[in-house]
Amino acid sequence: MKITVIISFLFAAAAFFCPKILMSMLTNEPLLIEGGAEYLRVVAPSYLLTGISQICLCILKNSSRATNAGLISSVCMAGNILMNLILILGLFGFPRLEITGAAISTDLARAAEVLWCAAALSKKGSVRLRIKNILHTDKMLSRDFWKYTTPVLGNEIVWGVGFTMYSVIMGHLGSDAVAANSIANIVKNLVCCLCLGIGSGGGILIGNELGAGNLQRGKEYGDWLCIISVLAGILSGAVLLAFSPLVLSVTGLSDTATGYLKWMLVICSYYMIGKSVNSTTVAGIFCAGGDSRFGFLCDTIVMWCVTVPLGLIAAFAFKLPVIAVYFIVSLDEFCKLPAVFIHYRKYKWVKDLTYKENP
Hints:
Elements: H1 2-17, H2 19-26, H3 30-62, H4 66-89, H5 99-121, H6 131-135, H7 139-171, H8 175-191, H9 193-211, H10 215-250, H11 255-288, H12 293-317, H13 322-329, H14 332-346
Helix pairs in contact: 1-3, 2-3, 3-4, 3-5, 4-5, 7-12, 8-11, 9-10, 9-11, 10-11, 11-13, 11-14, 12-13, 12-14
């Protein structure tokens, strides 16, 4: 919690004090910079609140209260959507705030999430957060934490910045490309929830088994989760394709942007398979056994040595069509699959990280 609050505060401060600079990194369209800066300045507090709530939800999930965590997340997300509808459009007597309304909705939803999490963790029998423990540093715990999580943090930073670079590339291909890419990402993230949930839940499940010393059972669970992840990826891709006509009919984009979006959604449909497998193995199974270094190296090589450079060259040197550029920057998950499969079969992740007390 201590580390998360510090990091999320820095991001919140950057969004509040330097929104135009941040937006200028993503696009050269003045209208998008102005609107995005307005949104970032208002939504900035939610970054700090999200950092707090995610740690609380993580504690709930890992202490056999995943149902409670799921309920909190689901209700707050539904509330966020409802408040978006009301404040953006100005329904039920509320003022029409448009993009500012979207930011306020996010702030309110995250604040409600933090308060609900705090109430859930205050109940008897819960793993409670105490200020004195947050400020205190346990040397052994601190050493193990950084040993196993530094590669994970590095992986998330490498992936996050790399994914942002994709937006930077698409953001300089015109407003139609920006609009289509934004909607494609929203649809992709919505449909991908099942795959990400399998990875997150699978990591907790296997971590519990490995921590209990049931290494063979953890290995068997890992094999089953890999099969489930492939099926979930195929199902998610099929669902995305099935709903593509509906998405295209309600977006209200220009003809050019609609044409881009149509093919972007097709690309996203097969992207789901790679995303599902990688989120389950790299982000879930491997990390459960402390095998986190592989993900960091894999994403660093694939994103920063392959897809990002190729995307930049395709967009700005060869000036390829928008869809060709989008296809290239969407190859990262599939490029990783052979290496991920080979590494999984080595079973280096099958190990117990916990300390056992002497009887």
